[in-house]
């Protein structure tokens, strides 16, 4: 295929995926949203939008590939979203200030309300506006749009920008030095990472992993533990993780153990959607009070019906509650290098009955070539259409960014399908099926 023919094919992919997304938005008589829509579309927070997510994944990946093919490489190099400015806008509550003000506010008034010097605030907002976050109604008058609604204080997804301004920034600032350090560079120890290197340089207390920092509040002024739990709920919103509530046959099971559950970002919606399930929320003992408070606030009926139990668990040292139908782990295994991941899975395998299954909701990194496309497709993994880059190119940028983040924090990793099957085989599990959800996937493991 000639280079020009490849570009023409990409244009066809862009056109077809965009039309598919438009068709999904129009279902049920809804209007198709634009970046300037002043409110959420019904599909924005729907768990039924897997088709839309898959169409957008293709669209984003094909568009980025086309842009990178035709733009000067220098332009592409600097075309990153400025999360520093997003972090400022979120911490200052700018989207909340602009709420219910469709006419917008002049930067002079906004400056007085959020206490940032007006010319600097205007420059920050103008950068965000040109990226598509907020809109400039008229010169120096800014208003919310559909994107900026996500960083209102009532949306959990906004809290994802805080770790980027703290832990990841610390780690990224020394990542190069860490790779060249003889002690840290070759280590896969979760206690010898770029983050730990940065802490050592600053004379901060040594911790065994980034998760111990949650209670230390050294990386963020509003409290890293509370931010972390909110960001985990926000991660589910960003990734559309709750589509698993409708894509997996929960009617086939009765009991679910949520391993590494945090405060219930997944299990609370699961309990609300599938009231026949008995659920166990397992995480570290220090998380349990926050988890109970979250359930009392968001799912009191599950507590009243005794459909939820709280059992503390250190999954590196002990097995979860034995004999459950499903052991569910969402974005848990990717935090850890293989040795630690195997420890977690061995403990889960020890708890399993012959009928039990393990559901791991995580990322599946695409191979750099298409040699394994056939095998992946046969087990349920979607394959990027030609001539897109394998793994949907930039349509899956987030998972590759996460790969570096977990590397810098805990020496964790996102894994290829072969990596997942190797881990499973080592602990006596077999991969039965993959449910591709558009961003994350559900890997369904059974006893081998």
Helices and strands in order, then pairings?
Elements: H1 3-26, H2 50-70, H3 73-77, H4 83-91, H5 94-97, E1 105-106, H6 107-114, H7 118-131, E2 135-138, E3 141-143, H8 161-164, H9 167-173, H10 175-180, H11 194-201, H12 224-239, H13 244-247, E4 255-259, H14 267-273, E5 278-283, H15 288-298, H16 300-304, E6 308-312, E7 326-330, H17 338-351, E8 357-362, E9 364-365, H18 373-378, H19 397-410, E10 415-416, H20 417-426, E11 429-436, E12 441-447
Parallel strand pairs: 4-5, 4-7, 5-6, 7-8, 9-10
Antiparallel strand pairs: 1-3, 2-3, 8-12, 11-12
Helix pairs in contact: 1-2, 6-7, 9-11
Domain O-methyltransferase C-terminal: 228-429
GO biological process, one term: methylation
Organism: Scleroderma citrinum Foug A
How would you describe what is shown here?
- The chain has about 450 residues and is an alpha/beta fold.
- It has 4 domains: about 5-75; about 80-155, Arc Repressor Mutant, subunit A, CATH 1.10.10.10; about 160-230, no CATH class; about 240-445, 3-Layer(aba) Sandwich (Rossmann fold).
- Helices cover about 45% and strands about 10% of the residues.
- It has 20 helices and 12 strands.
- The chain has helices spanning about 5-25, 50-70, 75, 85-90, 95, 105-115, 120-130, 160-165, 165-175, 175-180, 195-200, 225-240, 245, 265-275, 290-300, 300-305, 340-350, 375-380, 395-410, 415-425; strands spanning about 105, 135-140, 140-145, 255-260, 280-285, 310, 325-330, 355-360, 365, 415, 430-435, 440-445.
- Strands 6-5-4-7-8-12-11 form a 7-stranded mixed beta sheet, with helices on both faces. A 3-stranded antiparallel beta sheet has the order 1-3-2.
- The longest helix is centred in the N-terminal third of the chain and has 24 residues, at about 5-25.
- It starts with a helix and ends with a strand.
């Amino acid at each position: 295929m000639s280079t020009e023919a490849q570009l023409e094919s990409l244009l066809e992919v862009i056109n077809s995926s965009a039309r598919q997304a438009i068709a999904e938005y129009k279902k049920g008589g809804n209007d198709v949203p634009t970046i300037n829509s002043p409110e959420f579309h019904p599909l924005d927070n729907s768990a039924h939008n897997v088709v839309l997510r898959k169409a957008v994944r293709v669209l984003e990946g094909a568009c980025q590939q086309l842009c990178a093919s035709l733009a000067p490489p220098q332009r592409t190099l600097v075309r990153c979203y400025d999360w520093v400015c997003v972090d400022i806008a979120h911490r200052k509550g700018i989207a909340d200030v602009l709420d219910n003000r469709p006419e917008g506010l002049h930067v002079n008034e906004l400056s007085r309300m959020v206490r940032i010097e007006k010319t600097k605030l205007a420059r920050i907002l103008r950068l965000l506006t040109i990226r598509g976050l907020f809109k400039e109604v008229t010169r120096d008058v800014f208003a919310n749009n559909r994107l900026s609604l996500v960083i209102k204080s009532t949306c959990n997804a906004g809290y994802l920008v805080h770790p980027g301004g703290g832990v990841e920034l610390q780690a990224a600032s020394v990542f190069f030095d860490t790779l060249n350090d003889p002690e840290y560079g070759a280590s896969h120890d979760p206690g010898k990472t770029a983050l730990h290197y940065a802490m050592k340089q600053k004379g901060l207390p040594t911790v065994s992993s980034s998760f111990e920092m949650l209670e230390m509040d050294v990386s963020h002024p509003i409290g890293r533990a509370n931010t972390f739990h909110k960001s985990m709920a926000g991660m589910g919103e960003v990734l559309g993780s709750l589509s698993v509530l409708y894509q997996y046959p929960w009617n086939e099971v009765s009991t679910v153990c949520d391993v590494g559950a945090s405060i219930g970002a997944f299990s609370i919606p699961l309990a609300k959607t599938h009231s026949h399930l008995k659920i166990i929320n397992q995480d570290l003992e220090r998380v349990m009070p926050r988890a109970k408070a979250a359930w009392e606030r968001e799912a009191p009926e599950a507590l009243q019906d005794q459909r939820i139990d709280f059992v503390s668990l250190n999954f590196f040292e002990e097995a979860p509650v034995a004999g459950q139908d499903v052991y569910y782990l969402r974005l848990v295994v990717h935090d850890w290098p293989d040795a630690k991941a195997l420890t977690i899975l061995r403990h889960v395998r020890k708890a399993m009955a012959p009928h039990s299954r393990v559901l791991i909701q995580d990322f599946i990194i695409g191979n750099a070539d298409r040699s394994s496309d056939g095998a992946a497709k046969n087990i349920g993994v979607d394959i990027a259409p030609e001539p897109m880059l394998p793994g949907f190119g930039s349509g899956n940028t987030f998972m590759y960014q996460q790969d570096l983040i977990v590397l810098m924090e805990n020496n964790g990793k996102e894994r290829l399908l072969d990596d997942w099957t190797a881990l499973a085989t080592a602990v006596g599990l077999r991969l039965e099926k993959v449910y591709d959800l558009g961003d994350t996937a559900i890997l369904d493991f059974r006893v081998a």
